[in-house]
Request: fold
Amino acid sequence: MATAAAHQPARTQQHGAHDGTAGATGTEDAHQRAFDAAVAADERIEPRDWMPDAYRATLVRQIAQHAHSEIIGMQPEANWITRAPSLRRKAILMAKVQDEAGHGLYLYSAAETLGTGRDELLDKLHTGRQKYSSIFNYPTLTWADVGAIGWLVDGAAITNQVPLCRCSYGPYARAMIRICKEESFHQRQGYELLLALSRGTPEQHAMAQDAVDRWWWPSLMMFGPPDDESAHSAQSMDWKIKRHSNDELRQRFVDICVPQAESLGLTLPDPDLRWNEERGHHDFGPIDWTEFKEVLKGNGPCNEQRITQRRRAHDEGAWVREAAAAYAAKHSTAAGHGETGVEQA
Amino acid sequence: MTNTDWPLWEVFVRSRRGLSHTHAGSLHAPDAEFALRNARDLYTRRGEGVSIWVVPSTAITASSPDEKDPFFEPAADKPYRHPTFYEIPEGVKHL
Reply:
């Protein structure tokens, strides 16, 4: 059996037991009721529990997209590792990029508990059948972009992810708790980096402002389409996969960023941005959803580059995976024949 | 060749001496030694552990969620297994 007993989706077992029997529909109804009751009571759904097929499919789609985003997100930042301005910044950036790889792995593991293999997930990324966040299709043109990504992109990600720590699917929620703890460092290092530039020479200040100008709007798009156009939102809220709507989280993010930008001594590129006393929130200008859709369709500045590099990294790593598997096979054979001691001697 | 050939391992981390190992997550690795090294890089990047166990996921036998209620039933109706079940006169100490 390929799948671990601990993760084996219950669905397979139930289908085996009930297919073709008169009681199948009744059992299905009972399962649905148990599932609905667990979600309503804010309990977590675990891998071997029965769950509706659509719930499973939605989770696989969302967790896979999330995992892909983490590993594709390594590219724009890794672009600056060799050119970091100091050893301190270089060490920080390497640690951050390594964290992103780790986050990808936590999430792939969570997706696998739903019965979809790692290979299948990577294959769907490489062939464009599963997506990653559009934000990573923008280029990192200057060192200040590393700061803007940390502050704005990771900041938006945290705003999105904190509620996911209470997601109804246990393995996803647990992965998010781990990720959120680590993201906090990412956001703070970015903010500190921008602050250093903002308080530096006029050229450095201008570089920081330029980066914020380019990353602000794409960061707001990270929350997804407006609520009335979001295809999956309502169902995901019912299932308690999502806890807040796209627009609600976007508003929260804007409200958090405005004072942070002031402390940085930088401006946000939106002439319509102002405090609305009545709403108790900041009003902000219209988002260019045409741009969002174009990037999503594959016409962003770096779509082609990101996926090509991802495929190349996978192909060029093939010999390492083969060597490791061959080494493992050789040693398990040796152990089987009781020759391990000889080899080690 | 791809990851398909790499088995899944469950990772347990002891966060500090005196505590038991706790399930941290899972990962793929070709053998136990790689699983340990990968687990170190994946689950203890910030000093989260002083000891790691890796166990092939296939070696774990789990109770079935379908039998959840009957399986754990015997524990449900035995409140006398809890100290709070017993009434002790007020003023009695060290009990």
